[in-house]
Amino acid sequence: MAPIAQQIADMVDMLPAEDQALAFELVKKLVLAWDPDFTKTTPAEKAAIDQAAAELEAGDYVLDQAIHWN
Fold first, then answer.
1. Contact yes or no for 12/21 (Cβ under 8 A)
2. Average confidence (pLDDT) per 10 residues, the chain, 70 residues
């Protein structure tokens, strides 16, 4: 979690439950405005995708036939 996200979470945690719900709805509205169909990636998600792609290109994977499933 980014440091600013932790700060926001800490501040929201100080609010009464009713105001926490309001803060949640505001954040949800901001996220939906930024990515209405949930197709954008966060920096952490992009890094994980890039790492996985590099591992595949390097042949760093195991075929499912090589796994003893029983």
1. no
2. 93 97 96 91 93 96 90
Answer yes or no: are the C-beta atoms of 51 and 45 closer than 8 Å: no
Kindly list the distances between the CA atom of residue 67 and the CA atoms of 52, 53, 55, 57, 58, in Å, as whole numbers in the listed order: 19, 21, 18, 20, 20
Q: SS3 string of the chain?
A: CCHHHHHHHHHHHHCCHHHHHHHHHHHHHHHHHHCCCCCCCCHHHHHHHHHHHHHHHCCCCCCHHHCCCC
Please name the residue that has the structure tokens 């195991």. Answer: 62
Distances from the Cα of 24 to the Cα of 9, 12, 49, 58, 64, angstroms: 10, 9, 28, 42, 42
Tell me how many domains the chain contains.
1
Structural domain boundaries, residue 59: 3-66
